[in-house]
Amino acid sequence: MVVDSDKCTGCTKCTQSCPKNALELVTEFIDLEDKTIAAIKEEHRKKIQYTCTTCKPETNQTPCTTACNAKAIWCIWNPSNTK
């Protein structure tokens, strides 16, 4: 999962639509100001490929990506790297 902090508005649509509750809103210091953006929860970061598998990330039509009107979140799926 990739979240583009420039595009993310912190609207919470992706966090609310995630069936695995893997996303959260965080406040980051970006471009000299605090900005609230979506991020993968710490406990899911190292296992995100397994967390997101049921949403079929290879289609890039997961609940979080389709909920994002700003197109700030998308999936990078490369099963050959998951060995």
Task: Explain what this protein looks like in three dimensions.
The chain has 83 residues and is α+β, with helices and mostly antiparallel strands. The protein has one domain (2-78): Alpha-Beta Plaits. It is 22% helix and 24% strand. It contains 4 helices and 4 strands. It has helices at 13-17, 42-45, 48-51, 63-67; strands at 2-3, 23-30, 33-40, 73-74. The strands form 2 sheets. It has a two-stranded antiparallel sheet with strand order 1-4. Strands 2-3 form a two-stranded antiparallel ribbon. 25% of the residues are buried.
Summarize the SSE layout with pairings.
Blueprint: E1 2-3, H1 13-17, E2 23-30, E3 33-40, H2 42-45, H3 48-51, H4 63-67, E4 73-74
For the largest beta-sheet, the strand count, sense and barrel status come to:
2 strands, antiparallel
Percentage of residues in strands = 15-25%
The outline comes out as globular
CATH architecture: 2-Layer Sandwich
CATH class: Alpha Beta
Structural class: alpha+beta
Spatial gap, N to C terminus: 18 Å
Using only CA atoms, what is the Rg? 13 Å
Give the total of domains. 1
Q: What count of helical segments does DSSP give? A: 4
Order of helices and strands: EHEEHHHE
Mean pLDDT score: 89
**Helical content, roughly?**
10-25%
User: How many β-strand runs?
Assistant: 4
CATH topology: Alpha-Beta Plaits
Low-confidence runs of at least 5 consecutive residues: none
